[in-house]
Amino acid sequence: MEFLSVTVGGFRNLKKTKILLDGSITSLVSTNNYGKSNFLDAVAFGTVFMNSTPQARVRMMGDESCMPLVPRLDEDDFTFEVEFHDAKLGEYQFVRYGFAFAWRRDNGTGERITEERIELNSKRGGNWSSYLRRDIGKYRPGHSTQRCTRKLNLDSSQLAIDVLTAIDGIDIKPAVHSIRELRYGACYPLSTEGIMDDYPLELAGQEGGVFSLSERDLPRSLFELKKSHPDKYEEFQSIVCELFPEIRDIDVVSSQLQPEQKQRIEDQTQRLQETTSTDDENQVPYRIRDEVYRIFVTSSHLNQPVSVTRMSDGTKRVIWLVARSVMADIAGVGLLGVEEVETGIHPRMMQDLLDAVQEVLGETKVILTSHSPYLIQCLPFDSIYVGVPNDEGVASFATFEAGSVEGLSDAAYDRGMSAGEYIFALMSSGDDEEDILKSFLEAS
């Protein structure tokens, strides 16, 4: 499955914005407070909403931390749409799916799904055919039944994809299953504190394997990768050693947790539960694993292998990003969001890191956020989306007009700047400079 685009809007300060995912890596670049993180959060929110129960969706439609923050967007519904390609679907292999809902209002209105679309296509660039009319409660079973629609009764918090997967004898059922299988993974931590540590306490029912959507699982995930996909693990090792020539080897080992260690963790956790909640029904269910996992690095600069936790922040972040990229394709994660990729990483390593990540992604696409001009030098212009300046506090992103890149590069050269430095200079200056920047961008 290959993501082709993602659209989100009506979320915090973010207006409806579509990002095309033509290459392996796409980047959102801007100065601070332009909505880069909100875009990734909106994608995560939308994918969780799709796969939640109707009861959970009602709670999400009332989540004040996600509702529009600025007056311009106050009445906007939350919008989510993806386009993807899945060759095994045959004549339905290009899929466009989206939905919208009205946020809960103080006057008791809202809190309902207002729109849902399923559009399918047999070829890239062909005409889309609609298979769902939520507004009149009907769907089409397949391409051969052009004028035959069937009734579909949906509650205000129910999506059609909840119901269509349970209906037998409809041609579009495999496409609906593919929609339900869409997966988004997050690489958000700006600090590496704790991400390389393995603490053998996990929530009951927490997803494991080579790619968990939890961010604090790298040692265990790498161990599973080494055991289940040794070729991919060797690829991970090779990339790390290429990026850091002083590193000769990186390995992950497991060890049994001793009974006294398990008891100590049990006691500590019980004390924590008692101090945070007096209601047994509200206590978080957990279990203690039997093993702990640790990552060790062998370096020509050190006289013995050391725990990766003793490496620098930047080194740990690179290792973490490479590992997550390798695991994403194996686990069928179609889209990976990486927050502020440049944090802790030397600018001269950026190109090598991005090249290495692209080698292992397979069909997984990556959206990076950045407020660094250096990243712009490492990616093609058509994969870069720039925060569009405005005086209303509304976040949106646009890419460059195809015919404007040469003029932008020439203008940067005339000022003795790189293209990235010039773009950020325009973004950070007054109204006249912002207008110049907008003249290089596609209309948003």
Task: Describe the structure in your own words.
The structure is a single chain. With 444 residues, the chain is α+β, with helices and mostly antiparallel strands. The chain is built from 13 helices and 20 strands. It has helices spanning 36-50, 54-60, 160-164, 173-180, 218-228, 230-243, 259-276, 313-330, 347-360, 373-376, 405-414, 419-427, 431-440, and strands at 2-9, 17-20, 25-29, 78-85, 94-102, 112-121, 129-130, 132-133, 138-139, 150-151, 184-187, 201-203, 247-256, 286-288, 291-299, 306-307, 335-338, 365-370, 384-387, 397-398. The strands form five sheets. Strands 2-1-4-5-6-7 form a six-stranded antiparallel β-sheet, covered by helices on one side. A six-stranded mixed β-sheet has the order 11-17-18-3-19-20, sandwiched between helices. A three-stranded antiparallel β-sheet has the order 8-9-10, with no helix packed on it. It starts with a strand and ends with a helix. The model has no long low-confidence stretch (mean pLDDT 88).
